Automatic annotation (TrEMBL):
Channel that permits osmotically driven movement of water in both directions. It is involved in the osmoregulation and in the maintenance of cell turgor during volume expansion in rapidly growing cells. It mediates rapid entry or exit of water in response to abrupt changes in osmolarity. It is a multi-pass membrane protein. The gene is aqpZ. Signal peptide: none annotated. This is Aquaporin Z. Homotetramer.
Amino acid sequence: MIKRLSAEFIGTFWLVFGGCGSAVLAANFGGDGNPLGIGLLGVSLAFGLTVLTGAYALGHISGAHFNPAVSFGLWAGGRFPAKDLLPYIVAQTLGATAAAFILFQIANGSPGFAVDPAAAGTFATNGYDAMSPGGYSVASGFLVEVVLTAFFLVVIMGATHNRAPAGFAPIAIGLALTLIHLISIPVTNTSVNPARSTGVAMMVMGTPVSQLWLFWLAPILGGLLGGVFYKWLGHDRPDIVGNG
C-alpha cells in the first residue's frame, strides 16, 4: 500500500506541476500576443500529457488515478475497493498541494509575479461567477464539471477494459483530458479533479478556497455517475485498474 500511495502522490504532483505549471508559467509568457505563450491549447495539451506520461510510468503500481473523482468513479464502477478510497484521496491531495507549493516558489522568482484572490483563474485556480474566466454562473460551472467528469470516467473505464486494445489506455485518457480542458477552461478553468483544485487554491486562499465545495462535489458526483453507467454498460471486471 505504501508504494501505491507513493505512486498516487507522485502522479498527482506531476499532474498539478505540469498542468498548472503550464498555465502559470507558460500560457501567457511574454504578454498578450507573444508567440512564445502556449495559450489555452497548450495548457490543455499539458494536462493531457501529464496524465498520459504518468499513467505509463505509474499505472502498473497504483492504477494511476491521480484524482479523487476517478477513485470514487472506479469504486462506483466496481473496480476499486472502498477501504482504499480515503488513503488514495489523502495521497492525491497531498501530492497536489506539494506541487502547488513548489510551483508557487518558482513563480515567485519572477519580479512581475503576484496573486490576486479576487481575480479569475489566478495561479490556475478554479472558480465560478466572478472567478470564472468567462464569467459563467455557478449552475454552468456545476453542470460542466459533472458532465465532463462523468465522460472522463466512461473513457477511463472503457480504455482499461479487458476487451480494449492493450497498452493504449493512457493515450485515450490523456487525449480525453486534453479535450475536457479545451471545452471547459473558459467556464471554470477546468477542474474535474478535486485534488488539483485544492492544491492551487491553498496557495491563494480567499475566494478560491470558499468555492472549493463545487470542485469537490461536482467532479465526485460526475465520477460516480460515469462509473455506475459504465458498470451497467460494459459488463465490467472487478479490479483496481484505471487512470486519470
